[in-house]
Design goal:
Elements: E1 13-14, E2 21-24, E3 33-39, E4 45-52, E5 59-60, E6 67-70, E7 75-81, E8 87-95, E9 98-108, E10 111-114, H1 130-158
Keywords: Membrane, Transmembrane, Transmembrane helix
Organism: Demequina litorisediminis
Protein name: LPXTG cell wall anchor domain-containing protein
């Protein structure tokens, strides 16, 4: 599950790209509950499990273990119960037994703050056009060599011959 801390904090709805999980974390406060929806093909088994940094149990659809539901109408809905204390809540989403998504929230008095984003969901940063840079360098070197060669050739042609 992708957590976009800047834009998404305005509406407390976290989802992203091709990720199958959407959560409205407005109720993700100590002692609160919030809904999550897992998208998938009808008939798939969707599941969620959670852990809390204090060791307190995370309730998912009234249970404290991994809860599974059949996807119907394109999604399966879960209700997440947050423990009464501040801490870090980690959720994992499964489709047909395979972990497909995860999220981590810092749950503090009155707010839930995303603390992690799946690495594969981060935008690529840094210079990505190295082949272009190498090509430009080769052209500059070839151009510089041509200028030096032409200069030497012109100097040789203008040198008078000895009688």
């Amino acid at each position: 599950m992708t957590l976009v801390p800047t834009a998404a904090l305005a509406d407390n709805d976290y989802t992203g790209g091709d990720n199958p999980t959407t959560c409205d974390v407005s109720g993700a406060v100590p002692g609160g509950t919030f809904p999550c929806s897992v998208t998938g093909a009808d008939g798939q088994e969707a599941g969620m499990s959670g852990t809390f940094s204090t060791g307190d149990e995370v309730g998912i659809a009234g249970a404290t273990a991994t809860v599974t539901k059949a996807v119907s109408g394109g999604s399966a809905d879960f209700s997440i119960s947050v423990p009464e204390s501040d801490g870090t809540l980690s959720l994992t989403t499964y489709l047909d037994g395979e972990a497909v998504d995860s999220m981590t929230l810092a749950v503090v008095d009155g707010a839930a703050v995303p603390v992690a984003v799946d690495a594969e969901d981060l935008s690529q940063t840094g210079f990505t056009n190295m082949p272009l840079l190498v090509g430009v360098g080769l052209l500059l070197a070839a151009g510089g060599g041509a200028v030096v060669y032409a200069g030497r050739k012109a100097r040789q042609d203008s040198t008078p011959l000895a009688p």
